[in-house]
Structure formats: structure tokens, C-alpha cells
Amino acid sequence: MDLIKTLNYCRTNWARPHGLIVSIVLAIGLLVFLFLNIQIERLSFWHWVALVITPLILTVIWWRTTRLPCVPKGTIGFGVAIRTENQDQAKKLKADFIKRLRELVGTWRTGSVAFLDLGASPVEDLLVDPAKHIVSIHNQTRCHFLIWGDAKERNIDGPKHVLELEGSVCHAPIPGEAGAALSAEFRDLFPRRVLLEKEKDLFTFQFTAQWIDVVAQYVIAIASYLSGDLDHAESLFLTLHQRLDKTAPSHLPQIAKIRARVPSRIAEVYKTKLSYLSTKYHMSRSPELLMESEKVLAQLDLWEPSYYGLHLTRAMCHFLLRRDVQAAAESLKKCENVDDGTWLWSRAFLEAYSGDLESAYRSYQKAFATKTGNENVPLQCEEFIYLVMETEPDKGQLFYALGLINLRGKPDLISARRDLVLFLDWVERTKQNLSSQVSATRKWIAEIDEELDKTSTHA
To answer: What is the spatial distance between Cα 70 and Cα 257, in angstroms, rounded to a whole number?
Structure first.
């Protein structure tokens, strides 16, 4: 009887270290009992080998049968560890809940997701001391998502399955605050305690699996975005939006939150893509990047048509790709209610480029008086005008704009004087009828000379 109890103990606790120790002691005890009828001097070499090697064999078997599986490198790992009260419940959970969750997660992107059923062995450690064991299990299994908890059967206004679940997300490339915020959002949306009618357990198990799948897909999309995989994030968010759009609104607040947040998340992806392309363009000045930007603008326009950066970038693309001043000006009109003054600098440039220097002067004056979110706007505008003049040297009126930027926007008196003098030379050479601008320019040059004389005298 005691032997049967010990064997049962070893079987039920096999996954834990003390289960291994008891199994080793039991195995050696059985061998010793068998060898008791043999006089010690008659024990052969192989008897001693059996006594020594049995613990080693049991240890290897224990390690092979209890070690946690690991997802392949380069894939998104999704691990589930749920403890049940009986075998029937375990079979039901595996057939209706875990199977459905595996199927749903597997639709994210073929070959990129690995699903692991970790069984019940990690659950006790996770429930007793999650802070100690979560990171270890994430590292062992390479899972980005980990769901664990208990499945119980209780009588709560009738027989019910009770799922008490916890979840964590771990995504190595995401640092500090961003990673903590991602984990907090996952916990906020994750189903923690779910009551399932036993009579409808197939439907309710699958419903809960779908709930977890939606949350997981949403969070992994954010994780992909934060780690720089914008194409994958875009694909996941768009797929999730289509999926939620085809289903009736859920009474669950978590799903309602996700439904409301997905459009803005999609817009964030396109904004980041736009910023990335803009940075690359300023480094290379490649027209192909502007064409790629227009594709992103078309998508962003679907999700956040009022976005300020959309109109600024679209105006730039209209001008640089096609020299379509009217279309660029129309894009900038949509910025008139924005507090930031960057769009005024762009409008002033278009007016100067078109030869309307009176309107350009008024727009530059407004631009100088309005704050911008980027203190480098004057310098960037100056560089932009020089690039335009390299391809269109006949646009001498742009020296007037450069003179204003250096005089009032930066200020840089020496550069302003140079540009204003070049403007006067261009007017004289091309016989332009710009008497008002010429008079103002000569006045500004005189003021600059006076200021420079004062500076040199004090020096």
C-alpha cells in the first residue's frame, strides 16, 4: 500500500524536482531490495553499474520529459499553460479552447507564429511567485506571449467552467517605458476571470479563445510597431480592423476599446512611415522616396485626413514632383486653423516662387510671428530654396525670400545682405517691375550696414 502511494506520488509530482528525487530514491530502494538475496561479495560489476546509472537515467528522462518546449528563432512565440482539476476537463480544454486559440493565432502570418501548449507544469510556480518565474519561462520558451492559470468546475447559478487566467507579454527589442506600457495595455485588455456555461462550453470556450486572440493580435501589432517592423504592424492592424468591422459590436469593454483604438493605431503606423521617408528624402533627395511618400499619404488620408503633417508633406510632393503650385497651395489651405506656423513658411515660399512678392512678404511676416514645433524651420526653408534655385536659376525673386528669412527669421545679417544684393542685381538685370520691393530692399541693406558698422566699432 505504501509502495502504491509512493508510486502515485511520483507520478503526480513527476514534473517537479522533488518528484524526481523521490523517484530516484524509490528506484535505488527497489534495486537494493532485489540485491538483498545476493551476498555483497557476489555482486557483479553490472549490479554496481545499475545502482550508479539508474539515477542518471532517471535524471535524463526527467529532463527530457519535463523541459519546456521552445519556439524557433525569428518567430512570434505564443505559450499557454493551464492547470485543470481532472482529465475530462483537460481534454475539453485542449479540444475546444487551446485548439481554437492555436488555429486563430496561426492565421496572423504563415510561418511567423509558433504556438506552444506548455501543459500544467509551469502553472504552480507562476501562481506562487510570478515575478520570479515569468522572465525565466519567457527566456526558456522564447515566447512573446504567455497565458497561464487554472480551469475549475464550480456551481455558480448552475454548473460552470471557471477560467482564472493571467497573461504577460515580453518583446525584447522594446526598451524601458515602451515595453512597460505595452505590458500594461495587454493586462488591461486580457480576460482575467471567465465564467463559461458547461452546457454551452464549446461556444463559450471558442468565444474566449477569440477574445484572447483579438487582444494578442492587437498587442503583437503594437509590439511590431514599437520594434520597427512597420510592415508587419500595418498588416496585423489592417487585418484586425477588417475582422472587427465584419463582426457585430461586442458587449465586452475590452473588445470595444480595441475596436476604438485600431484606427488611430493604423494612422500612427502611416505617420511613422511618412516620417521615416521624409528623413530619408532629406538625406538623399531621391524622387522615388517622394513617390513612396505619396502612397503612404493616400493610406493616411483614409485614417486621419486632418493630420497636419499629411497636408505639409502632400504640398511638398505636389511641388517637387510636378511643380504643381496650385495643388500645393490647396493642401496648405487645409492647415489654416493649425497653431503651428510651419505651413506659413511653405505658403510664403510658393507665393515667392510664383512671383507674388507682396503676398510672400505678408506670409513671411506672419510666419516670423508664429511659433513652430521645429526651431530648424528657417534653416530648412533656406536650404530648400537653394535646392530649387540650383535647378531653376532664373527664379531670382527667391533671393528676396532668402533675404527676408536671413534678416527676420534666423537672423543672419551678413547672409541677409548678400541675398538682398543678389535680388537687386537680378531685378536690374531682368528689368523686373518691382519698385516697392526694390525700395524696401535698399532700406534693409542700409539698416544692415548701419548695424554691422556698430558691431565692428564696438569690437
So the answer is: 32
Burial 54-70 (b: 16+ CB within 10 A, else e): bbeebeeebeeeeebee
pTM tops 0.85: no
Backbone phi, psi, residue 354, to 5°: -80, -5
Contact 347, 332 (CB under 8 A): yes
- Residue 167's nearest CA partner among 142, 140, 149 is 149
Residues 432, 435, 441, CA angle at the centre, nearest 5°? 100
Q: What's the maximum distance between 2 C-alpha atoms anywhere in the chain?
A: 125
Range of weakest confidence among 38-42, 53-57, 145-149, 432-436: 38-42
Question: H or E stretch including 80?
Answer: strand 76-84
What's the DSSP call for residue 175? -
For 280-314, the pLDDT digits (tens) are 998 998 999 999 999 999 999 999 999 999 999 99
Dump pLDDT digits (tens) for 175-222: 556 666 766 777 777 666 665 555 555 445 555 667 777 877 887 788
Q: Distance between CA 323 and CA 268 in Å, rounded?
A: 29
Question: Which among 376, 444, 379, 442 is positioned nearest to 407, based on CA atoms?
Answer: 444
Q: How far apart are CA 275 and CA 273, in angstroms?
A: 5
Cis peptide bond N-terminal to 175, omega within 30: no
- Where b means 16+ CB within 10 Å and e means fewer, 378-387 reads beebbebbee
**Spatial separation of the C-alpha atoms in residues 439 and 358, rounded to whole Å:** 13
